[in-house]
Amino acid sequence: MNYSKLTLIFIFLSVLSTSGQEVLTIQNAVKTAVENNYQIITAGNSLKIDSLSVSPGFAGMLPSVEASIIDNNSVQNLSQTRSDGTLVERDNAKNNSLNYGVAMDWTLFDGLRMFANYEQLKENQNLGEAELKQVILTKVGEVMITYFDLVQQQQQLSALDSTIYISKQRVELAQNRFKIGKASKLEVLNAQVDLNTDQTLMQRQKELYANTKTQLNEQLARDLKIDFKVVPEIFVDESLSLPELETMVVVNNPQLNAERIGKRISELELKQIRAARYPTLYATTGYNFGRSESSLGFTTSSNSQGFNYGFGASLNLFNGFNQNRNEKIGKIELQNAEVAIEEQEQQLLSMLVTTYQTYLTNISLIELEGNNESIAKENLDITVDKFRIGIIPTIEFRTAQLNYINAKVRFSNAKFQAKLSEIILRQLSGNLEI
């Protein structure tokens, strides 16, 4: 039985052993993360708060209406001396007054501060949307990286399965050769040591694989003990273009858009500061009812009801030159916001260029390591056949075996690194498929 047939058998056995497990696709993983991830939920709730805050009432554009009622009562011992000398005394004299009504206050003009405040509330909502998108891109990117890391580890486990089987066959062959006197005890011991080494590597790889599964379950915010398997292969999009990515970064990157929104907020805050140079006009109105009763006095009871209204204005004439200072500070903060946009754009484009170069290198390595794997596999097939008939030494067989597994690991890692570069490029450009 040659090596190719053995590989097919182990792939078949691997499929049977995992047939009862959930097959988690990358699409389902991303969907689960978007629905369950704690940080995404928190950012979504923050956006809901920002959305609820966008209202004319929050901006101070609408009047405030208040209803009030006041009921005062007293029981007193009174003694009065009137202007004609008459003395009047009364014990347990009762007095009460009841006032109730509705009043409205409305700021009619405040230097357009309320309108700038309303626009700022809208920009806060836009900022929340950009922040939510950034959180989603970050968390989905983390999920994708962990997922494809599992695919790579799964491929390495398959390679180790194959090499362990071959190592077991080598031990069995060495023992048979030793029994008939065609091999020394040293050959058997070397074969057993190499098998133990392969099994140790397998245990370590299984441990890493299990821990990475737990990490992915944590990122998906689901039961950490859920077992699953991932797809068997990594596919890399090799068509990404640097000029297109640069355009998308400038337009779509949520971090850069957040800086632009921050600049707009600084402009609106400066408008609110300048509004203090204008007068504030307000109006008040209301309707009140009143009633009072007194056991002693010239007026023993009274009732009133009626409508009241009025207008007012205020203007800050001097506040220690704080108005000028506040405006200068606002202008400096606006300049800082403009600098932050330029800095963020340069950082993102720099990261994009370096990541794209890594992406191109990894794509070229996929082809190179794929060829190396094919060569190493062919070499191992020939070496296995020669070893069975005893025309090559043990060390040459082991070298071919290690060369093949290392080639498979490098090929798998090259695809993973290329996929990692692709994910980062799409994150930077705001074009990660969600």
Topology:
Blueprint: H1 3-17, E1 22-23, H2 26-36, H3 38-53, H4 56-59, E2 64-81, E3 87-109, H5 113-179, H6 185-219, E4 228-229, H7 242-252, H8 254-274, E5 280-294, E6 301-314, H9 322-388, H10 394-428
Parallel strand pairs: 1-4
Antiparallel strand pairs: 2-3, 3-5, 5-6
Helix pairs in contact: 1-5, 2-5, 3-5, 5-6, 5-8, 5-10, 7-9, 8-9, 9-10
Describe what this molecule looks like in 3D:
The model is unreliable at 1-19 (pLDDT under 50). The protein has helices at 3-17, 26-36, 38-53, 56-59, 113-179, 185-219, 242-252, 254-274, 322-388, 394-428; strands at 22-23, 64-81, 87-109, 228-229, 280-294, 301-314. A hairpin with a 5-residue loop joins strand 2 (64-81) and strand 3 (87-109). It is built from ten helices and six strands, in the order αβαααββααβααββαα. The protein has one domain: Outer membrane efflux proteins (OEP) (Up-down Bundle). The protein has 434 residues and is α+β, with helices and mostly antiparallel strands. It has a four-stranded antiparallel sheet, with no helix packed on it. Strands 1-4 form a two-stranded parallel ribbon. Residues 1-20 form the signal peptide.
Q: What's the quaternary structure here?
A: single chain
User: Roughly how much helix do the residues carry, as a percent range?
Assistant: 55-70%
Name of the CATH homologous superfamily: Outer membrane efflux proteins (OEP)
Number of E-state strands: 6
- Beta-strand percent range: 15-25%
Largest sheet: 4 strands, antiparallel
SSE order: HEHHHEEHHEHHEEHH
| Residue-averaged pLDDT | 90
Keywords: Cell outer membrane, Membrane, Signal, Transmembrane, Transmembrane beta strand, Transport
InterPro entries: OMP_efflux (IPR003423), TolC-like (IPR051906)
GO molecular function: efflux transmembrane transporter activity; porin activity
Signal peptide: 1-20
